[in-house]
Design a protein that fits this description.
- By secondary structure, the protein is of the alpha+beta class.
- The chain has a single domain, classed as 3-Layer(aba) Sandwich (Glutaredoxin), CATH 3.40.30.
- It contains 3 helices and 4 strands.
- The protein has a 4-stranded mixed β-sheet.
- Strand 3 and strand 4 form a beta hairpin.
- The longest helix is centred in the first third of the chain and has 12 residues.
Length: 80
């Protein structure tokens, strides 16, 4: 499983997802709007105007959504 986390600085939910991934020793990459990993326009084009941070993608498919959806998915798959 290869996860990508789209985050922004100061987002508590982004930090929570990254902490969970670290604790579970999951492979993930972080793209932050703050370090030029993507623009706000690119984010809204991919995830929609009402999308919140973080957005988590699995194997290049946007199926996880935000923090709650990611935790739910990982529990259902018995990853955590």
């Amino acid at each position: 499983m290869k996860f990508t986390v789209y985050s922004k600085e100061g987002c508590g939910y982004c930090e929570k997802v990254k902490t969970i991934f670290d604790m579970a020793k999951l492979d993930y990459v972080v793209h932050s709007i703050d370090d030029g990993g993507f623009t706000h326009m690119q984010f809204t084009e991919v995830f929609g105007y009402d999308a919140t941070f973080p957005q988590v993608v699995l194997n290049d498919e946007t199926i996880l959504g935000g923090c709650k959806d990611t935790i739910k998915y990982l529990r259902e798959k018995e990853v955590i």
